[in-house]
Amino acid sequence: MFGNRQIDHFKDEKGQYFKCGVAENEMSQIMKRSALGVILAVLAISPLSTMVLAQETRIAQTPPMGWSGFFPSTKSGDELIRAEADAMVSTGMKAAGYEYMNVDDCWEGGRDSLGNICPNGHYPDMKALVDYVHRKGLKFGIYSSPGLKTCAGFEGSFGHEEQDAESFAAWGVDYLKYDWCSGSGDQVAAYRRMYEALKRTGRPILYALCQYGRERGWAWGASVGGNVWRTTSDIALNGISYDDISLVGFEQNGLERFAGPGHWNDPDGLLIGQPGIDDDEARTQMSLWCLLASPLIASNDLTQMSPQTLAILTNPEVIAVNQDKAGIQGHRVAEEGPLEVWMKPLADGSKAVGLFNREGAPIPVTVSFRDAGLPESVQLRDLWARKDLGVFQRSYTATVPRHGVVMLKATGQF
Ligand code: GAL
Fold this sequence. Notes:
The longest helix is centred in the N-terminal third of the chain and has 20 residues. An eight-stranded parallel sheet has the order 9-8-7-6-5-2-1-10. It has a six-stranded antiparallel sheet with strand order 11-12-13-18-15-16. 30% of the residues lie in helices and 22% in strands. The radius of gyration is 22 Å and the shape is globular. Helix 6 packs across helix 7. By secondary structure, it is an alpha/beta fold. The relative contact order is 0.11. Bound molecules: beta-D-galactopyranose. The site of beta-D-galactopyranose has 12 residues, from loops.
């Protein structure tokens, strides 16, 4: 199904380009330099495995935050990523914690005579683009597949895992989304192969598995070095709507035991700011993804965001729930028809609570403090309104808008 997808505005009308971001002689210099680095590291007493592990443990201690270029835009390629990186900084998204600029599929050209992966004509100089993103204080994400072809039919990494990992490291890539697409055979072995290749480069690269949760990917994702793994098929597979947010987001319950610092469940990107998603629906996705400790990967055009979209993506009190140091994924604590209450324990002993209404009209939703594991008397703060609500006994009720949410921080009174 995915393999047939074509994204027309990325199509390279002139055919494949074989212009590598790193020239062959530069590549061999880089490889020589990294070989020297490894020798020096070994001589410096630190065993190689210890050195690499120390790097790994720094990655994704809280869920990654960033932006992805997967969704169609008026711009493409190098021009798109630069414009969005500029906007990431100028809008305040970076200051709010978003850092990864992720090129998704469709950047690949073919391979040069040595088998090195080359970007297509939309990315004339990948290294220069990565440097540009880095100069903005941001990180750079790239995309590939364990198969021969990516989902959009471009060059995959099959049989070239080591070489591609070297290219990514040489360009300065910080994040790899590795998308199963045309992959075949043993998924665990295929994902482990690329992980080993990334590790050998010595560069800390966040490893994002994308195999849509097949074969319970969440159960083995961390064992193959995954820092995040998709738990679902594409969130916007049938177009962008609240139904996608609702169906994907609320079905995440039960996966919480697989998530923690360095390794997170990923129910796919944020649709906030996309046409077809209103502000209540956007607040629902943001609240739920924060309660789920999911990656926060925006997908909207940051250069043309409304003030409301920006406010929803950057509310510091809601983001703090997502980025909480304890790294505990929340879960559902009560459900009645279209009404759901979710809770996420936080490092300071307080709890974040979401009151959700999946119905098409406003409805009062009650959280029983006992259901949410809270004491009888609780102090509440409304995280979207950013105001203290006072102290409540045993329960709290709020009227929740259609497709909307009320998100609370609950602190016990002792
Ligand atoms: C899908 C993947 C999407 C996107 C797309 C690119 O398989 O789930 O997130 O990366 O491929 O072609």
